[in-house]
Amino acid sequence: MDEMKPAKLVLQSGEVFTGYAPKWQKNTTFGEVVFNTGMTGYEETLTDPSYSGQILTFTFPILGNYGVSDGKNFESSKIHVPGMICQTVFTTPEHHQKTKTFLDWLEAQNIPILIGVDTRALTKVIREHGVINGALVFDDSTPSSFPDTMAYNFVEQVSTKEVTTHGNGKYKIILVDCGLKLNILNSLLKHDITVKVVPFDYDYSNENYDGVFLSNGPGDPKLCTKTINTLKNILKETKPVYGICLGSQLMGLAVGADTYKLKFGHRGQNQPCIDVETKKCYLTSQNHGYAVDEKTLPKDWVVTYRHLNDNTVAGIKHTSMPFVAVQFHPEAAPGPEDTEHFFKEFIQQVKKGKC
């Protein structure tokens, strides 16, 4: 506690949550305050580019108990949240892969944290108001205004800036990076394919490929106009197109459906979904604040999965073409791997198209 100082979270709605923070933290940090219900996996979660622009609240009361590895569990090269909130942080972690403590990791990347908050109480506020803009404040000041961080196209910020090729398999896949989690790439490379990773605004419509895969990513899908326009051309063809999370929303927009912002989103590794056709239920890893509006789907598109907590769309597909997308994360990292068959189904469609 000698290395800590008083700090607070100020919400745009007026609520204030007090706690403490490391003394090295100075500047007020703004973001959209959201919550994650996962019980583990903070390394993977914080390095997920989909959290860009969001101050992340962990509802599980303990962080840092197994420290931080040398990157084995990272989903990108850095932490993407502008700040985070928790109840308790362990400063003496125990794990055979640990190379640093949780707080040392945050300090090295200059990521603010507010500790000692009743995160369950904060979560109740978010569930009542919906996701809300907030500020992490480390002095006696009070913000006079709160920027709308979600008006910014974070996909442009986190997407790769160059084209890269991975693997040397038989089938050629275009992987559109809108904020790619590395385990999506790793899951694809388990198969006999060559993956070409391209920026979100890259036009690949005239290239030679056997299938297209759309990644996850942060923010409002409607801001990704270049991605959507290229996808519209691709969906005029017959080659397989699959998407995850933001990729699902982009596919919906490309075929003329609408998307909308959820009240408080789905974030965590324990999100229940049901397969509409088989009625089989899955626990899934999810991280999104937007969803496809079912009522606006074209007649040749159907809902394949639903979120069991609120019945929102968790998966869509075309009735005859190999166009499929899910709102959850079948690559997990962190979370259950119950839906990893999604990648196998994609590869089967790619092989089928080559026959």
Would you identify the CATH architecture of the largest domain?
Answer: 3-Layer(aba) Sandwich
How many strands? Answer: 19
Percent of residues in helices: 10-25%
Distance between the termini: 65 Å
pLDDT average, as an integer? 96
Shape: globular
Which class of secondary structure composition applies to the elements? alpha/beta
CATH superfamily of the largest domain: Class I glutamine amidotransferase (GATase) domain
CATH topology of the largest domain: Rossmann fold
N-to-C order of helices and strands: EEEHEEEEHEHEHEEHEEHEHEEEEEH
Adjacency order of strands in the biggest sheet = 10-12-11-13-14-19-18-17-15-16
Low-confidence stretches: none
* Largest sheet geometry: 10 strands, mixed
Number of helices: 8
Whole-number radius of gyration? Answer: 20 Å
CATH class of the largest domain: Alpha Beta
Our count of domains comes out at 2
Q: What fraction of the residues are assigned to beta strands by DSSP?
A: 25-35%
